[in-house]
Design brief:
Elements lengths: L1 H6 L3 H17 L5 H21 L18 H19 L2 H14 L7 H7 L4 H12 L3 H19 L4 H7 L10
Length: 179
């Protein structure tokens, strides 16, 4: 079921499956680091298997979950991110990243924070940032700033709007940060 959710890029289901599993562990009276290491080994094998079944095996290496994570909350987040990464990377990555860029171009005046973009495109914030930087050689913040500056230049060249109005149109709530 988890493999199917990853293949279908159903990140919500992936997250729910991992959370359910972790909640089952939490309900136990006792669990050891050794047990968590066994689960980690099994997860790493499953990640590798999904990777090997992917069409893009040579383009990406699987990030393994550390055997030395002892905090279940940290472990849960690491497992979710690993599965999110594989789903995003191996099942339409380029289209997703170019869609993020197109979204930035079209919505330059809105909230383009990494959490907002990751939610919009169903990727973890860390993975979205990493993938974007690898593809465009700029961080999301650098790209947002560059797009906003270009749009502001166009407004200044071809419009009659004031600096204050242009600042607000291009996503700067405080015109003092616009200068």
């Amino acid at each position: 079921m988890l493999k199917a959710a990853v293949r279908d890029k159903n990140l919500e289901t992936v997250g729910n499956i991992v959370s359910e599993f972790c909640n089952g562990i939490r309900r136990k009276e006792y669990f050891s680091l050794y047990e968590l290491q066994i689960y980690t080994t099994e997860i790493n094998l499953l990640l590798r298997k999904i990777m090997m079944e992917s069409r893009e095996v040579d383009s990406f290496t699987v990030r393994q979950i550390s055997l030395w994570i002892y905090d279940l909350d940290v472990w849960e987040e690491s497992v979710k991110n690993a599965f999110y990464e594989i789903a995003s990377c191996h099942f339409g990555t380029t289209a997703n990243i170019t869609a993020v860029y197109a979204y930035i171009q079209e919505n330059f005046g809105g909230n383009l924070s990494i959490p907002a973009l990751s939610s919009q495109f169903n990727m973890s914030p860390q993975y979205l940032s990493k993938l974007f930087k690898n593809y465009y050689k700029k961080t999301i913040g650098q790209m947002v700033t560059a797009v906003r500056i270009e749009k502001a230049k166009e407004c200044l060249r071809h419009g009659t709007a004031t600096i204050s109005e242009i600042a607000h149109l291009t996503g700067y709530e405080d015109e003092n940060y616009f200068g």
